[in-house]
UniProtKB/TrEMBL annotation:
InterPro entries named among the record's database cross-references: SecD/SecF_arch_bac, SecDF_P1_head
Keyword Translocase: no
Protein name: SecD/SecF fusion protein
SecDF P1 head subdomain domain ranges (all copies): 163-269
Highest rank taxon of the organism: Bacteria
Single GO BP term: protein transport
Keyword tags: Cell membrane, Membrane, Protein transport, Translocation, Transmembrane, Transmembrane helix, Transport
Source organism phylogeny: Bacteria, Bacillati, Actinomycetota, Actinomycetes, Streptosporangiales
Keyword Coiled coil: no
Membrane-spanning ranges: 23-49
Amino acid sequence: MESQPPHPHPSPPSPEGPPRRNLLWPLVAGAVALTLLVAAGGVTAWLLFIAERPGGGESVEFRLGNGQDPVPAEDVDLVSAVLHRRVVDLAAGEPAITVQGDTALTVEFPPDTDVAEATALLERPGVMAVHPVLGAAVSPDDGDTVLPVPSTSELLRVGPAGLGNAQVASAGFEHNPSYGQWEVQIEFTGEGAGTWATMTGEAACQSPGDPRRRLAIVVDEEIVSAPEVTPDVGCGVGLDVGATVVTGGFERTEAAVLATLVGSDPLPVAVTAVP
């Protein structure tokens, strides 16, 4: 009988264990994935920072007053607040404003801002006033205060202002689809509402078509609208709604600018862009 070869014994395991190549690969892949994830998170955070950061666009320096005499700190603070609101109201985004002592400040506009348009707005005094109309004028030298009516050859003599920025509670603008035009809505304070009722009541005592039946809404010494009080308003009664709507064939930007100027404080000092 033929003898069978003995069964070989299995080799003992290597003291170093099985090959490690297959185990290292998932670790390396995981480390790369984690690195990419962290990097992506960093990019996302940076992009969010850029999106939320004020400014980010072109910067313009503005002189306060004459640029030499110190401007009181409270006036500098008011100028900064007013300019900030004006830029935001243009739907341009958040500006970054840096005060430079007591004679200047720098406005860093948001990206894609129309800098020329925004700069012109920031330089405007923003003084709003509602005047009674005393009558028509033939020339600017007719005495009293004579102002031209926009888009016409008409001149109006106006009396002392009865309402100003301080009597305005809020102002906004919207497109009126019924008339296909942009309008500015003004809401008066309690004091302003009473004065508005008095002024419209006095104007209503004049005959329709008489210039004295009109009120002139003036911004920075320019008439933006001079509406006639409607026939349904009683003499000595006036409009007691405490609000009014201003129309004038405005484009959207014009309505936005007017609402911004009417609804905020006027600048306490002159603000001029430095060339």
